[in-house]
Amino acid sequence: MKNLVVLLPTLDEEYGLRKILPQIPRQQLTTLGWKTEVWIVDGGSKDLSVEIAKQHDCKVIKQAGYGKGAAMRTGFSKFLALNKDALVMLDADGTYDPAEITDFVTMLENNEVVIGDRLRGKIEPGAMTRVNYFGNHMLTWVASALYGVNTNDLCTGYWGFTKSAIAKLKLNSMRFEIEAEMYASCVREKITIVSIPISYRGRIGEAKLGSIVDGWIIFKKLIVRRIFPHPVEVVTGKGNLDID
Ligand SMILES: Nc1nc2c(ncn2[C@@H]2O[C@H](COP(=O)(O)OP(=O)(O)OP(=O)(O)O)[C@@H](O)[C@H]2O)c(=O)[nH]1
Ligand SMILES: [Mg+2]
């Protein structure tokens, strides 16, 4: 059996977790040959997120630093340290359908990185605001034009990776620019990406992303990584997250 980690960044997502954790297709994944662990990387939730996760047999990791980007990097480091085979990440807010994890692992048999594409998938009415819909299209277009490698949905939070891909990624994002940086790093490291259409549903609970502020930070990240492909931490060895 190969080892799969399902990684959920979590900040006050008690209700999202209650909905999605029972939907993770553990049985089907076992049938497909994957021994699955579910990890939440918690950013200091003040609600019952941690308790709900434990009730559903999840491992709880406390994130280093602040923000979704720092949380993902904490999870990636743990994943590499524990030498697992593949990782699927998705948000804990109920927007992504855990049943689709099986599509990701199937595609990972022949690809290093699989990206869940909401924009060519099925977006539930009202699930994405007009501003976010427009912003997602714009940023995706800018990324494809700047880096010369087509991508369909830059800011999606549903990704699958092989261990080799995660080992090659060079990241230093703190917040919601992490996905843009993952894309930029895949291009830089010549990791092939494939997109699969996914469904996108309405969020449960309060959004942590601010469309305009975070859209701007994502745009800046695309520009900075185009000019300086490696984060300064990778070059100097300083400023990396302190992960135990
Ligand atoms: N660990 C951790 N998770 C976070 C942090 N900020 C956000 N998250 C999680 O990251 C995921 C995405 O956050 P959202 O607020 O849904 O952001 P988004 O999906 O880009 O925006 P919406 O479309 O408004 O939902 C959710 O599961 C959050 O709980 C953080 O600082 N630490
Ligand atoms: Mg969300």
Can you walk me through this structure?
The protein contains ten helices and seven strands. Helix content is 41%, strand content 20%. It has 244 residues and is of the alpha/beta class. It has a seven-stranded mixed beta sheet with strand order 3-2-1-4-6-5-7, sandwiched between helices. Strand 2, helix 3 and strand 3 form a beta-alpha-beta unit. The protein is globular and about 45 Å long. It binds guanosine-5'-triphosphate and magnesium ion (MG). Magnesium ion binds next to loops.
Q: In short, what is this structure?
A:
It is built from ten helices and seven strands. With 244 residues, the chain is α/β, with parallel strands linked by helices.
Helix fraction, binned, reads 40-55%
Bound molecules: guanosine-5'-triphosphate, magnesium ion
Distance between the termini: 27 Å
- β content, as a range? 15-25%
Q: Regions with pLDDT < 50 over 5+ consecutive residues?
A: none
Strand ordering within the main sheet: 3-2-1-4-6-5-7
| Fourth-tier CATH superfamily name | Spore Coat Polysaccharide Biosynthesis Protein SpsA, Chain A
CATH class: Alpha Beta
Q: What does the oligomeric state look like here?
A: single chain
Number of separate domains: 1
- Computed over alpha carbons, the radius of gyration is 17 Å
Q: How would you characterize the largest beta sheet? A: 7 strands, mixed
- What shape does the CA trace take? globular
The total count of helices amounts to 10
Please provide the ordered H/E string of secondary-structure elements. Answer: EHHEHEHEHEHEHHEHH
> Quick one: how many beta strands?
7
Structural class: alpha/beta
What number is the mean pLDDT? 94
CATH-defined topology: Spore Coat Polysaccharide Biosynthesis Protein SpsA, Chain A
CATH architecture: Alpha-Beta Complex
